[in-house]
Write a structure and sequence with these properties.
single chain; about 350 residues; alpha+beta; D-amino Acid Aminotransferase, Chain A, domain 1; 10-stranded mixed sheet; 20 strands
Length: about 350
């Protein structure tokens, strides 16, 4: 189904200028992008064209009032040379959930998926085949109407571009339990992938890095007693042999990777708990040895080991990652599934 789209493809690809074997994260962009405008109460024809700069009014409402959302997705090279998306409908549904919370126009799910597939087909050669590489996909939308005044915009711009990427984090991370700054408050926009959520995290994260940490373990906004998520990732702990993850809700992003890891863990027979995780419980577990593994989970980060946690007044190192059992097993299972090397019991791969 491509009749609703227009194609303006590049005359010559830039891929010969790129080393797909050595990729930074988020700095190399594929040849094409998809763009669609919402005007007059409806979406206009979608256009595939060259990736490049865009023009925008200084009065575009998204620049002033924060109506901007995005998603993060990946496509993976398969053993037979084909390409597969991983659970794209989950990201599409979450995108619309974010749009609804931010009073933005919703997108037809089928059209969104078709646009994704057509864009990957256009730039299929940009999908790297390295063991830690993938094609990162960034759909985003912002208010584009030129108007100064606080209200929902009447016009939006929806764009998808892609980046061939290597790993987001290179190695393990040290995290700090944040007990002053807040990522999200009850009734707020924490469950949406809204741009402002990430802007609010930059200063406290920079401060944590000045103290020798890589990321933050966010706590609840009311009492700062419960763990919520870690920087740009959801978080999972192995406590007393169980996989424990903070429950999602209106202050915690419902991560697709998190859900995938927990469902795969249940499928493999691991014991799982989704519940409140108190800072005091985590500290006691780290000091007693009951906390044996901790890791972030997210589309960009995939599964990133946490080697040490900074609690107020004390840093506690976790057991050496080389001794871990659950996270390495789940990481391999998930990676094999996404790359077409393992069983897909849930039908998550969408082969293009």
């Amino acid at each position: 189904m491509t009749t609703e789209f227009k194609f303006n493809t590049v005359e010559e690809s830039r891929i010969d200028k790129v080393n797909l074997k050595e990729l930074p994260f988020g700095s190399v962009f594929s040849d094409h992008q998809f763009q669609m405008e919402f005007k007059g109460g409806e979406w206009q024809q979608g256009v595939f064209g060259p990736y490049g700069d865009m023009t925008l009014s200084p009065a575009a409402m998204g620049l002033h009032y924060g109506q901007a959302i995005f998603e993060g997705m990946k496509a993976f090279r398969q053993p037979d040379g084909s390409v597969a998306l991983f659970r794209p409908m989950e990201n599409i549904r979450r995108f619309n959930k974010s749009a609804e919370r931010m009073s933005m126009a919703l997108l037809d799910e089928g059209l969104f998926l078709n646009a994704l597939i057509e864009l990957i087909k256009l730039d299929e050669q940009w999908v790297p085949d390295g063991s830690e590489s993938s094609l990162y996909i960034r759909p985003f939308m912002f208010a584009s109407e030129a108007h100064v005044g606080v209200r929902p915009s009447d016009e939006y711009r929806f764009i998808i571009f892609t980046c061939p990427v290597g790993p987001y984090y290179k190695g393990n991370v040290r995290v700090k339990v944040e007990t002053f700054f807040t990522r999200a408050a009850p009734g707020g926009t924490g469950y949406a992938k809204a741009a402002g959520n990430y802007a609010a995290s930059l200063q406290p994260t920079a401060m944590a890095r000045d103290e020798g940490y890589d990321q933050i373990l966010w706590t609840d906004a009311v009492e700062h007693k419960y763990i919520e998520e870690s920087g740009t990732m959801n978080v999972v702990f192995v406590l007393n042999g169980k996989l424990v993850s903070p429950s999602v809700g209106d202050t915690v992003l419902s991560g697709v990777t998190r859900d995938s890891v927990l469902r795969l863990a249940a499928y493999k027979g691991y014991e799982i708990e989704e519940r409140k995780v108190a800072v005091a419980e985590l500290k006691a577990g780290a000091e007693s040895g009951a906390l044996t593994e901790a890791f972030g989970v997210g589309t960009a980060a995939t599964m990133t080991p946490i080697e040490a946690i900074g609690f107020p007044g004390v840093d506690v190192a976790l057991p050496p990652v080389e001794s871990w059992k659950l996270m390495p097993d789940l990481a391999k299972t998930l990676d094999d599934l996404r790359r077409g090397k393992g069983e897909d019991p849930f039908g998550w791969r969408v082969v293009i």
